Amino acid sequence: xxxxxxxxxxxxxxxxxxxxxxxxxxxxxxxxxxxxxxxxxxxxxxxxxxxxxxxxxxxxxxxxxxxxxxxxxxxxxxxxxxxxxxxxxxxxxxxxxxxxxxxxxxxxxxxxxxxxxxxxxxxxxxxxxxxxxxxxxxxxxxxxxxxxxxxxxxxxxxxxxxxxxxxxxxxxxxxxxxxxxxxxxxxxxxxxxxxxxxxxx
Length: 201
Known about the structure:
Blueprint: E1 26-27, H1 28-34, E2 38-56, E3 60-61, E4 64-65, E5 87-97, E6 105-110, H2 112-119, H3 123-132, H4 134-144, E7 148-157, E8 165-175, H5 179-184, E9 186-190, E10 196-200
Parallel strand pairs: 1-2, 6-8
Antiparallel strand pairs: 2-5, 2-7, 3-4, 5-6, 7-8, 8-9, 9-10
């Protein structure tokens, strides 16, 4: 598969500020072996990523927007609300790779607000690029591959007879690639509005 389709998922959060990231996050292998619910800060490489755009429920439930995926008839799978003006949301599936043991990889989910910050664009702009500037968008996504990032992970149990973990990325810290910046320990912090700021280790 080539072109922009290489990054697109074919199958079918809350706006929170970026937390302070620890100076010594865990390796991916440590968290994968632990395999238990919790919040973890992990430093890893981005081995792959895929995206999907979907329509979501705009109804406010207990003061928060539902954001559950709508079916083909624009009906919410969570609250059964039929939406006339659905939200457009972006979903990323990022494959993280351990920095020291590249054979250890783990896929994690990134929902709209964090995905927008990571890609530094609103979902509407992203959707427009899918239609009108696929080559530029492909180049942007390609530039993310191989980058080293520190992510804040929320591991949740899926439940069921054979319980496994949902790996959800709730914040991303992106390291600069420039060698001089690496020596200074400078990294770029991206919040969920897409703003960047330099931060020292």
